[in-house]
TrEMBL record:
Stated name of the protein: Cyclohexanone monooxygenase
Domain of life where this protein originates: Bacteria
InterPro entries linked: FAD-bind_Monooxygenase_sf (IPR051209), FAD/NAD-bd_sf (IPR036188)
Amino acid sequence: MQAPNSTLIPHGLVEIEGNTVISANGDRHEVDVIIWGTGFEVSHPPIGRRVQNAQGQRLSELWQSSSPEAFLGTSIQHLPNAFLVLGPNILAYDSFIGIAEAQLDYIVSGLLQMKAKGLKRIEIKPDVLKYHNAKVQTHVQKTVFNRGGCQSYYLDQNGRNFAAWPWSLAELKRRLQRLDLEHYQVA
């Protein structure tokens, strides 16, 4: 945040028009990247009430009827060119800072590939997302968060574990080293 090419906008954003964001106080800012700091709310992230997918559906509405899902806690279906940090099923047993840094490596890798290849749009493939989340849910059933009747905030209103990463931290960081464009629809 202290880099000369970054600016903190300490107001909520009310609208985005192309590369312009409009803050709650009416100021307009030309931007290249938006990083939303929305606080820490595990089960119902506030950003879900503010972000709409390509079909105009708010993430919070989708996540009420079906549990939150993302690819590597980072990419959401029908949300092109957008990435989450500390999204669904990314919580491993480490500092959130370490996980967020690994996710940022993944995101920057994707952005650099987009720039190098002249891509305007990337979006996680639905079959990749579906396979990933089915595998996550199968393996998370073996964790302490899902066994023995444990009730924790890792389980959502549907009883589905939307928070925990079921494998090792080393595996998570390995998978976040580089974004694989094969997992994405590109244009």
